[in-house]
Amino acid sequence: xxxxxxxxxxxxxxxxxxxxxxxxxxxxxxxxxxxxxxxxxxxxxxxxxxxxxxxxxxxxxxxxxxxxxxxxxxxxxxxxxxxxxxxxxxxxxxxxxxxxxxxxxxxxxxxxxxxxxxxxxxxxxxxxxxxxxxxxxxxxxxxxxxxxxxxxxxxxxxxxxxxxxxxxxxxxxxxxxxxxxxxxxxxx
Length: 188
What we know:
The protein is an alpha+beta fold.
């Protein structure tokens, strides 16, 4: 009886290892979309990949403005079109790579007498609907931000290893603002 139980237990462990083992250790090495890849968003925005420079993806907007995406997460251009390089240098998002569930980095950024702290983490692997309604394997990256006066925000990127880009992004803040970007088409 004990021998049968041991064989059964060993069989269960082997079955678990075969079906769950590879998924537990999966990682994504850093890479950018191939040059010329066009990425379209639900907002009508279109970007074209222009290649890779270290941990930066060189991108170009439809109006011809060039910028870089550090670690597929942070644009060299701020929301107002300003230079984000000091923020990128403080946060160093490239430290999160290669992506693996459980990876976590912390950083802080100060400007104008205000300070923000950031925690970026690879929360989990997730199937996510992407262009054409297809399901994509993704890594969910979350960035928790805390600032002066109780300000908080959460930003999330669903990054597809197959596309080497995020297929969805969303952000929300404690003051009630939110933003999102959904990729609707990727042309290679």
